[in-house]
Amino acid sequence: xxxxxxxxxxxxxxxxxxxxxxxxxxxxxxxxxxxxxxxxxxxxxxxxxxxxxxxxxxxxxxxxxxxxxxxxxxxxxxxxxxxxxxxxxxxxxxxxxxxxxxxxxxxxxxxxxxxxxxxxxxxxxxxxxxxxxxxxxxxxxxxxxxxxxxxxxxxxxxxxxxxxxxxxxxxxxxxxxxxxxxxxxxxxxxxxxxxxxxxxxxxxxxxxxxxxxxxxxxxxxxxxxxxxxxxxxxx
Length: 235
What we know:
Elements (H helix, E strand, L loop, with lengths): L2 H19 L7 E2 L13 E4 L5 E4 L10 E11 L12 E2 L9 H20 L5 E3 L6 E13 L12 E3 L3 E11 L5 E11 L7 E2 L2 H25 L7
Parallel strand pairs: 4-6, 4-7, 5-8
Antiparallel strand pairs: 1-2, 2-3, 3-10, 7-9, 8-11, 9-10
């Protein structure tokens, strides 16, 4: 790995940590007001959730959990999309391309690896592979995945520059390992894009790096939130 990539990843982790613990006002809290947004399964909205939108049980208590289980990730892709692109050099806008089966497998692997690795770094929970009474289950879904990156087997393979590689919505849920009851849900729509909204040439190496970055951001943010959760602040 090059020095440039190492520095980029170090900056990414630093900015992510700052966003999680230093650049917001107060800790996340649960909205128990009469007009609070309550989901169909009885979760109240979280105020200042750090990432996207989030809901949880008003009596959420994670003190009884000592282990964590990542139960996999389901992925849904936006239907349609173009199969080929123009061969001349261009700047991609919002053209939506189909993703190959190989590309889908790489995306699934990147997400699974990121979540397993990050959950394994927890300072509070031991990563396990079986549910149980003291196990917190993490289930993830990545929905409406869109790719703006043209296929690399296009005729002529002219240069294409992207402001966004693609985008997707993460839905992550926490469940009790014994009853399977839902405890919390996080929803976050995010684009894979170069730092500073600069144009970036589309190729397999750069695109794979951006996918890993977004996957790691989601997994890192969830793991940090779980490690730091000590209950809702008193109102």
